[in-house]
Amino acid sequence: MHANAKGFVAFALVPAFFFLGAFYVYPFVFNLDISATDLDIFQLRDGGRWIGLENYVELLTSPGFRRVMFNTVIWLTVVGVTVRIVLGLALAFLLDSRTIRAWRLSTLTRILLIIPWATPPVVAIVVWRWILDPRVGAANQLLMWLGLIDQPIPFLADANWVWPSIIVIITWNTLPLVTLTFMASLQSLPGELVEAAEIDGASRMQLLRYIYLPHLKPAIIVMAMMSTFWTFNNFIYVWLTTGAGPGTFTNVMATEIYIKGFIDGRLGYSAAAGVVMAMIMTAFGMIYLRYVAARALVEEEDR
Amino acid sequence: MSRAPGALAQFATLAITAAVLAFLVYPTAWVFVASLKTPDTMFSATRWSMTLENYTRLFAAGFGHNVMNSLVLCIGAVLLSTFVSVNAAYAFSRFRFRGRGTLFASVMLGQTFPWIILVTPVFILFARAGMLNNWGSMLFVYVAISIPFSVYLLVGYLRAVPRSLDEAAIMDGASYFQVVWRIVFPIMFPGIVATATYAFLLCWSEYLFSVALLTQEEMKTMPLALYIYFGENVTDWGNVMAGSALTTLPTLLLFLPLQRYMVSGLAAGSVKQ
Questions:
Q1: Which domains can be identified in chain B, with CATH numbers?
Q2: How far apart are CA A21 and CA A31, in angstroms?
Q3: What is the C-alpha to C-alpha distance for residues B209 and B234, in angstroms, rounded to an integer?
Q4: Domain limits, chain A
Q5: pTM here?
Q6: Over the stretch B203-248, which tens digit does the pLDDT of each residue have?
Q7: Smallest Cβ distance to B17: which of A100, A136, A253?
Q8: CB contact under 8 A, A17 and B104
Q9: Which residues of chain B are within 8 Å of residue A120 when distances are taken between CB atoms?
Q10: Among A83, A157, B162, B267, which one has the highest count of C-beta atoms within 10 angstroms of its own C-beta?
């Protein structure tokens, strides 16, 4: 490489990696150190006492830990991501259908579809908390008007309804991104392929099974993985919707870290919870790097 | 077109589409409608009485200050992160150097890195440095969280810019810096605008770091102020909806014109939800 080029590469990459190193790498390593102390938010400058693995032992043996893991893995991640992918696929097929195109509704439907995504999560949570409100909310008004219920349901305070409600809010806010990704993939499918299969007499299920789904598979895998990352680590939806309540019923890993660190002031314990979370994500991250990042790089080399 | 759907199937498709879109649009539409309604007609679908009073009360309570905080912070962060990311993306796209693969992979890893794990150590480090309630700290955080996806998106857009253009300019004696900002920048301007918009939206709706690092009332950003306001005035929905409408308006105005570029940027999950 030419000397000028070397100089430019250094000039271009040093600032970017300064930010990445100072924001991601150094604090992460520093966090390991903090996690072995009893550092308290009110005695920040004292540095905390070294207590070894006590925070980890307390976390992993605490009675609430199983519930937190169950909430994080099953409700938030598995249910949340599955609902999003399935509905995203269904909606992509619907909005990419011949009827919508024949009626020239593609642009209009896409603009309307983007609206929930363009709504900041804080606003989404505020308005959904109004919709789900037992006294003045639209959901209860509608259900009572339809005669489906006699008494308003306190969606966010009732243990039977609170998780489905959170899932509805997250799905509403994130469905457009998933749907648009699948639509982009569907639109790259050669039309002749579908027509040829139809001429050969393929049924709708056969088209789905042998043409559409194999074509969509890479997009589904990427979307499922990225959604898993975002959702597993997501703090705002649970915290601002329910405050991890009623009680600690909807507590997840992210809210546990925040509550222990910033409400109870136990920064050491919060750091340890972060490390445990990072270890879980690392296992998933290895798979991600191998299949997603590596593939993106290969495409880059091929050009 | 073979096998056009029958009239009944078409009707069913249109009806389901209308229902789904109504469900998707209703909450955001309601924010804007309710922000203009008087308290006594707020929850009635049939009685309408329009007013701007919700907005005047909101600004009287000092919300304008929070709007300015968010605007200045996010515009600053976007300009800085875009400058840094365009240079880095160009280096990744046009040069083969040792460690390139590893460095690019680590940028991608940053995109998936959980912020919730970073908030505790970042808070401690800034607190010890006396840098809580500091615009420099917030700027640093927002630039750092924008760089990974910005670099990734821009590398994608750079693929579409023919190398022959840069090479010709280099032959004519231009420096690489000049090539990036005089030749490549105008060509990939739409892509840069799309990337900068994502960065702006990320900053505009960010909650976790601002709640941890900003404790002084007069420094709070819009989402933070909105939620505190919501907590304190649970019954005053008019005000809360006016604040929500103001928070949503810029993102809607930026998202809608960009919807064409959006799909091309969506590949490989480059945008944070």
A1: 62-269 (1.10.3720.10)
A2: 14
A3: 24
A4: 67-273
A5: 0.91
A6: 999 999 999 999 998 999 999 999 888 887 666 788 899 999 999 9
A7: A100
A8: no
A9: 201, 204-205, 223, 247-248, 251
A10: B267
